[in-house]
């Protein structure tokens, strides 16, 4: 990956809907160059999709929790697949330390969030959980 790829990725991370023409102008290269680079980055799975960023006002209407999960480590892949099926879990990370997994859970109400955390705690292989509810987001890159 060269500097042009990095600049292209930076522009796409700011606005994934930017047209190829505008990207080419901003990068001072041809449209064909931008298209070829995007195709290559997609094929290499550097770019795995194009998404949206929600306005802070919208996200502030949703309840987000960070859930640390301690597991029995017998079948981590199976547990990960079970957690992946829960739509409220927006991200799942393997971590080091006292806990094994870190989940980001998002729901519309605290009652819904409570149900999802109970659902996580009841999965086979989960020993215990520790939850912190996000009060506000200061920034995100």
Automatic annotation (TrEMBL):
GO terms for molecular function: sequence-specific DNA binding. Keywords: DNA-binding, Transcription, Transcription regulation. The keyword Glycoprotein does not apply. SUPFAM superfamilies: Dimeric alpha+beta barrel, Winged helix' DNA-binding domain. It holds the Pfam family AsnC_trans_reg. Coiled coil: none annotated. One of its GO terms (biological process) is response to amino acid. Residues 1-62 form the HTH asnC-type domain. GO terms for cellular component: cytosol. PANTHER family: HTH-TYPE TRANSCRIPTIONAL REGULATOR LRPC (PTHR30154:SF53), LEUCINE-RESPONSIVE REGULATORY PROTEIN (PTHR30154). This is Lrp/AsnC family transcriptional regulator.
């Amino acid at each position: 990956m060269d500097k042009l790829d990095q600049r292209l990725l930076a522009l796409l991370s700011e606005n994934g809907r930017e047209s190829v023409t505008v990207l080419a102008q901003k990068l001072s290269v041809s449209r064909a160059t931008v298209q070829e680079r995007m195709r290559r980055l997609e094929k290499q799975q550097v770019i795995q999709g194009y998404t949206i960023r929600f306005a802070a006002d919208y996200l502030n209407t949703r309840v987000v929790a960070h859930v640390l999960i301690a597991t029995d480590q017998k079948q981590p892949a199976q547990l990960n697949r079970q957690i992946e099926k829960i739509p409220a879990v927006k991200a799942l990370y393997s971590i080091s330390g006292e806990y094994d997994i870190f989940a980001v859970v998002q729901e519309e109400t605290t009652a819904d969030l409570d149900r999802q955390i109970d659902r996580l705690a009841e999965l086979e292989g989960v020993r215990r959980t520790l939850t912190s509810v996000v009060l506000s987001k200061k920034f995100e890159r």
